[in-house]
């Protein structure tokens, strides 16, 4: 049974968002995801994955994304 995590992703345009969604499909431990909230600057995803947060962090870092926990809120940042 997959675990779930809610992450906040700050984007500057829709291309950033589309790129991230394509990355989710490439990561084998991600079972599925849902875009729960969307506004001009941020998107909130619920990601269902297998493993633990460290493994998910490691997989996302291979594609240039950093997963960080800031006082209980998970942030996903593109590391340019």
Task: Write up this protein.
This protein is of the alpha+beta class and 80 residues long. Helix content is 28%, strand content 46%. The protein has a five-stranded mixed sheet with strand order 2-3-1-5-4. Strand 2 (30-38) and strand 3 form a beta hairpin. The relative contact order is 0.26. The mean pLDDT is 94.
Q: What's the average pLDDT?
A: 94
Poorly predicted spans:
none
Q: Which secondary-structure class do the elements indicate?
A: alpha+beta
Strand order of the largest sheet: 2-3-1-5-4
Percent helix: 25-40%
Largest sheet: 5 strands, mixed
General form: globular
Total beta strand runs: 5
Tally of alpha and pi helices: 2
Residues in β-strands, percent:
over 45%
State the distance separating the first and last CA atoms. 33 Å
Radius of gyration: 12 Å
Order of SSEs: EHEEHEE
Keywords:
single chain, 80 residues, alpha+beta, five-stranded mixed beta sheet, 5 strands, 28% helix
